[in-house]
Amino acid sequence: MKFKAILFAVAVSASTLAFAQETKKFGPPAGNALVGDTYGSAVASGTESKAISVDKLSKKLKKDNKKVENVAVKGKVTDVCDKKGCWLTIQTEDNSQFFVKMKDYAFFVPTALKGKTVVLDGTAERKVTSIDEQKHYAEDAKKPQAEIDAITTPKEEIRFVANGIKVVN
Fold first, then answer.
1. Angstrom distance (rounded) from CA 111 to CA 81
2. Pairwise CA distance, residues 98 & 103, whole Å
3. How far apart are CA 57 and CA 74, in angstroms?
4. Measured between alpha carbons, how far is 97 from 75 in angstroms, rounded to an integer?
């Protein structure tokens, strides 16, 4: 009988350890974002070679009625969400930026991606971003409160939903 009790205690302990939730603080994934690294779905070399500039994407969006699917865009990362790595921004030719989310919130990127050139594979559209959503992302980016308070109007911008991201430079 003692053997069964000990065996039961060991089994309960093992299952508790196996199913225990990790208490690690959430944050962006670790990594140096080296050339060739991919996040999300793989970006095929054929897709990479067909990547268009941010400027061409903007023109295509104006022409194609505000949405372009299955497009690859090459650009420089200007910011990454410090909380989880769940969004990033890409610099445009006019020194503004466009916003990138990961499809289905299925993957995240390291903050080391800042300053790197990437190819994004996914869907782009022109969208009006609400004041509240703009403020939320500004808070995620740890912008000064004065800058957050200065957001007072919705803004039309390019929004990109990435299936995959590849570091190319």
1. 7
2. 16
3. 10
4. 10
